Structures are given as C-alpha cells and as structure tokens.
Amino acid sequence: MQLREADLEKLHAQAWERSLGEVTVEFRGKRFLAQRPDGACVFLLEDGKCRIHAEFGLEAKPLACQLFPFNFAPDAGAARVGISFACASVLANQGAALPSHMREVRRMADAVPELTPIRTMFDDATEATPEELQYVADALDRWIANGAVPLSIRIDGLAWLGQQLSGARFSKVRGARLQELMETLVDALPKELPLHSVQPATRAQRATLRQAAFFRLEDPKIGELRRVGRLRAIFGQYLRSRAFAKGVGMMPAMGDRWPSAEFAAIDRVRSLTDSKEWSACEELLVRWMRATILGGRAWGSGYYGWSVPAGIQALALNVACACWLARAHAAAFNRAEPALEDLRAAIGRVDRSCGRAPWLGSRAEAMRMGFLRVDDGLRRVATCALISSA
Hints:
Blueprint: H1 5-13, H2 17-20, E1 24-27, E2 30-33, H3 51-56, H4 63-67, E3 70-74, E4 79-83, H5 88-91, H6 102-111, E5 121-123, E6 126-127, H7 130-144, H8 151-165, H9 176-192, H10 203-217, H11 222-228, H12 230-246, H13 263-268, H14 278-294, H15 308-332, H16 340-353, H17 363-373, H18 377-387
Antiparallel strand pairs: 1-2, 3-4, 5-6
Helix pairs in contact: 7-9, 7-14, 8-15, 8-18, 10-12, 10-15, 11-12, 14-16, 15-16, 15-18, 17-18
C-alpha cells in the first residue's frame, strides 16, 4: 500500500513506533506500509480488522485504506465508483448497499488528487464520450445479466465482442449510431455464436492461459525484493512464468496465501459447471463481471488506460483465469470439482491484481492479448476454462 505525504504525517502523529516499531518501508524512492513475513499488513488484527481504525477511527487511516473496497475511475464525465472483489464481504455479497456509503465515498473522492478527467479511447484515433461509454456498458451489462442464455455462451459472447470490436472503425459509428450498433450486436449474439462455433483451445493457447493466470497470482513483497535483489527477483519470476507455460510437474509456490498443486491434478478437476455449487458460482461470476463493467473498471482509467475493445478482451481473459485458478485451488485441496470457496479465492486474487499490478498493463500483457485474438484464441480459452479442462 503506497503512502502519500499526508498519510505519513498521520502515521507519525499516531506514534506507532512505540508499540510496533517501523510501520513503513521505503522502496525505489517511495514509502509503503510495512508487511509481516506472510504478506499481511503490519496493522492487521487477529479478528481481521485494522488496528488504526480500531484505535483512531476511519479517517485516521491512509487514504487508500479508507477507500477499500471502493475505487474510482474518472472519465470525461465524472468518476465512476467501482468495488473490489478482493474484499471478503463483497465476494460473499454481504454488507450495506452502495447508497448508504455515498457520503463517505464523496468525501474520499474529494480527497483523491488523481481524480482528474482522462481520455478513454475506442481506437488510436477515436476518443469515447461519457455517453458512448455508457452505451457500451449498458449493452454489455444486458448481455451478461441475461439469465435466459447459459453463462458459458455469455462468456463466449463477451470474448467474441472483444475480438470483433478490436477491428471496428469507431470514427464512422458515433453517438446514437454506436448505441444502435451495440444493441444490434448483443441481440444477435444468441443466433450468431452457433454459426461460429468455438473449438477446443490449442496447446499454445492453453499455455498462454496458464501464463496469464500466473501473472495474476504473482504478488512480490517489498521485503523479499529488497532481500534477494532486483535481478534475482526478475529471474525467479521468469522461471515461475516458464513453469506455468509448460504446465508440467508441481505448480511453483506463489506465496503463503495461495496453495500449490500438480498441473496434472489441476487438469483432472472437473469444470465449474459440474460443481454442486454451480448456481452460487454462476451468481458470483455474473456479479463480478457486471460490477467490473458498471463500475468503470473494464477500460480507460479503471484498467491501465486501455481502449474499450482491449478492456473487453481483458475482462474475458480475467474470467478465464479466474475459472482456471478455481480449479487449481480445488486441486490443492484434493477436490474433484471446484467449490464456491475455490472460485471466491480465485476471483479475489484476480480482481486484486487487475488495475493494481503494473505488469498487467504492460506491453507483454498486450502481446498475450494479441496472440489470443488470433484463431479465436480468446473465445477458446474463455469457454474451455469454464466448461472443460484447459
């Protein structure tokens, strides 16, 4: 958790050094909250609550901690309020409804200096207006929420839309014409997709999916980076990434909070759709996708400044990674099929990384997306990760 100067001043005034010792750490010229050896925040209490909050109240915490699980995605209109599925209460669909938090959300929005309008693009030359972004979000949300269509088809349709829109000339379709286009595409999906049936993922596509899942699991700790040095840390990450791509033997250890399993055991785990808790899993997947889209976390400022088509593709890949990781989590606990707790662990980890881990907005990630756009790769891994072995 990176700290602002105002955060540091508050922590200093609270005099934590007397009871906890050093509570911040410097890394590459910036200050962060210190972590315990297992990666937990130094202020985490045994009951899962924050010690600063318990002793001094909400506004005494660093601003980023106050915001959690909310986040802001500013566009040319106003900041959209999204919510993080890294929060256990959000995963379980518990807690008060968003309107009851709006007073605090507005207060925190006023305190975030980064909330300045930024451009969200459809392509390299076409900037989206707030109204056009809403047209796209409404159409996607209507498709994802359509319970009359099996979820595997809805996820396939999301990937198909991402692939098709990546080649569109948006300069020719603006305003109400864009709204009409999106509504037409969504309405046509149930009849269009069977005409373009998706094949099983190829070996290279499955390797790319596993590698994408790795980068959503990767969670380097400042203490470890300082201990081993930058070069050794990069080399270790490379070796783990290669192991995921090969998919042979034991999955590399990914920190104390993610269990490991043999890749062969992961392949033997049945699909999410075979789970006895499939109904609850489906509800969680749909809620996560809809919250990502409506909360402004699928493109633009909410997702590394990516264009709308690229953001839709990334969402489809994130869903595929979460489904694969749910099976990996189940394999680690010797379950023959994923349970709801496996999917919650997977979505929490993926959602925590997306928008936060800088490497997921890098050129390397864009290259992975480019590879998966070829030969229906994105559709293949998205569908296969949910309904069959990937």
